[in-house]
Amino acid sequence: MENPAQSFFGGMLIEIFIACILYGITTLQTFIYFQKYQNDVPSLKLMVATIWILETAHTAFCMQVVYAYLVSNFGEFEYFLSINWGVGVTVITEVVISTLVQAFYVKRVWIMSNKAKLLTAFIAFVTVCRIGFGIGSTILSYHFANWISFRAHKSSLVTVSGGLGAAALVDVLVALTLSFYLTRGRTGWQKSSNSRINLIMLYAVNSGAITASASVLSVILYATQTDSLVFLGLVEIQGKLYANSFLGSLNARSHIRNKNNAAQYPSFEFSNNSAFRAVAPPAPKVEVFQQTIVTNDMGEQENDFSMKNLKGGELV
């Protein structure tokens, strides 16, 4: 006789394991952020801390769901049909995390598009719809006692597919919009600056493609794998992808600024009116120090460093 746990929960168990690995990457990225960008505005620091706290809680509840199905109710195969209370908590937590990250990207669209109201409002509207669908899925997970009833009801199909579809649409729109305005804004720039812009575009497109693909795949698995929770595990992974996408975009700033030898080429910044502003590199300086090597009677060398600046200044 085939073990029901293998087909019903095996895929989700592996996905939760992957989600825990991604949580470790999230924690590392959070540590790197607070070490490298201590001068960021307090609101951005608060958002980073909030996302990490939510990610920690989300991971804990994912482990609770796994523990409830595989340990607390070990051998009770009928319990697999029940919807554990922790499922709803993980879903709403993932919705909050993804909404915070998407709101951050919507703000970027607002700035880069020179405050295009219709475009930004439409993307923001789809983001709000994603919140509504997510709340609906959470409520239904507590309304129905088991997975059979949950899947049989059309409202659950609407909330799950609608929420994931809205999330994918936002990701695609953000990636396309940022790529469009970055491409339009690089006309006439030096090759090094264009290389940086290409890097930003590549990151934006890849981040949107990964999260959007996860959303679409979750909908497909929900519709096809009716005897498995593999779709739910992918939803849990999606929250980790959003968090790492957000933190990665913040931590990549120094790398992008220093690309192609920043000592020779100008950097660039984004202003609030979406225009690019060149930042001239600081003039290089050179300092010469005196070093005296003394050999004592034992034949040992002793270094005497004088930190007195003998000559230096700006190279013009």
Briefly summarize what is shown.
The chain is mostly helical and 316 residues long. It has nine helices and four strands, in the order αααααααααββββ. The strands form two sheets. The protein has a two-stranded antiparallel ribbon. A two-stranded antiparallel sheet has the order 3-4.
Describe the model.
The protein is mostly helical and 316 residues long. Helix content is 69%, strand content 10%. It has helices at 4-36, 42-72, 85-112, 117-143, 147-152, 154-185, 191-224, 230-251, 253-257; strands at 267-270, 276-279, 285-295, 301-314. A hairpin with a 5-residue loop joins strand 3 (285-295) and strand 4. Residues 261-280, 294-300 and 304-316 have low confidence and may be disordered.
Using brief descriptors, characterize the structure shown.
single chain, 316 residues, mainly alpha, two-stranded antiparallel ribbon, two-stranded antiparallel sheet, 9 helices, disordered C terminus
